[in-house]
Amino acid sequence: MIGFDMTLLALLMVAGVALDWLLGEVSRWHPLVGFGCYVQWLERQLNRQPGSYARGALAWSLAVLPLVALSVVITILLARQSFWLAAAWHVVLLYFCIGLRSLRDHVMPIAQALKAGDLAAARNLTGRIVSRDTTQSQETDLAKAAVESLLENGNDAVFGTLFWFAVAGGPGALLFRLANTLDAMWGYRTPRFLAFGCVAARIDDGLNWIPARLTAWSYALLGNWRQARTCWRTQASAWSSPNAGPVMSSGAGALGLALGGTAIYDGEVEERPPLGMGRDAVADDIVRAWKLVSRTAMLWLTVMLTISMLMTMLYTTYVSLTMGGTHA
Fold it and tell me: What is its main location (predicted)?
């Protein structure tokens, strides 16, 4: 039974990723967009200055817990009606939570614009996916920003979601994605969010701790292993995020690129710690980074399927030997 459950989970995971790859992100009425509008309203109601840890915790609870609880209830009700309805529900939840195809659709046009020499278009496209100022950025700056976004979101939008789906099915993926979205919206160290967004940031850190390190190991395994491990060991701790540091330093090292460094946020120049080692990023490196992220997703789907098949074989062998012993 354990092997069967693992096989089912792996197949549902593959189905969810396949659905995302075939359909891509919903262009209208995406549930996460609706969630974003809701939490913006919630923040305006509860985030009175000065900020409060307690109000931030309340806001997080009101934003996440009802939706996750509803997804669990729906899962239980569908399972009582039909095995296939429940399975489809898990797949749909994963589809709405994962962002593999979305990553490609957002970054590949940047690479194409840079290759065509259309710097204005590349600046505009990059500005849609990063919070830094891109209005004066050159090709290297834009390529670096796109690669950094790919590496970090390879964990946040892809592998972290797959990890929590493996742990708790569709509701687990939903919990992770909502928590990650709140961190992206509230987890800033600004006067407005320093206290209010602290709970969202810490919960996301906790949920992301294992997935981030598995992602970092995967980047190293699929790229320059020695360099990725060196960069992870020597650079990750310099980043304020305990999870972005390992992921991005390992990814940059795996690709042989020098990332991090100077960036402009809200009109102010910020000197960020270095990431990776090697040459500066160019347009083709966006494609390389995308391939690294997609191969990481495929690696873990393969791992899940392999583990499930092995467990099924072991369980079948165990049952066969037990029944054989009983008949004897």
Answer: membrane
Domain coverage including residue 16: 2-312
Q: What is the pLDDT of residues 93-141, one digit of tens each?
A: 999 999 999 999 999 999 999 999 999 999 999 999 998 899 989 999 9
Q: Is residue 321 part of a domain?
A: no
Under the phi-then-psi rule, with left for phi > 0, alpha for psi from -120 to 50, and beta for the rest, what region is 29? left
Nearest Cα neighbor of 145 from 157, 134, 161 is 134
Domain count, the chain: 1
* In-domain check, residue 94: yes
Q: pTM for the complete prediction?
A: 0.92
Query: Cα(227)–Cα(220) distance, rounded to whole angstroms?
Result: 8
Residue type, 304: M
Burial of 266 (0-12, 13-18, 19+ CB in 10 A): exposed
> CA–CA separation, 261 vs 283, rounded Å?
18
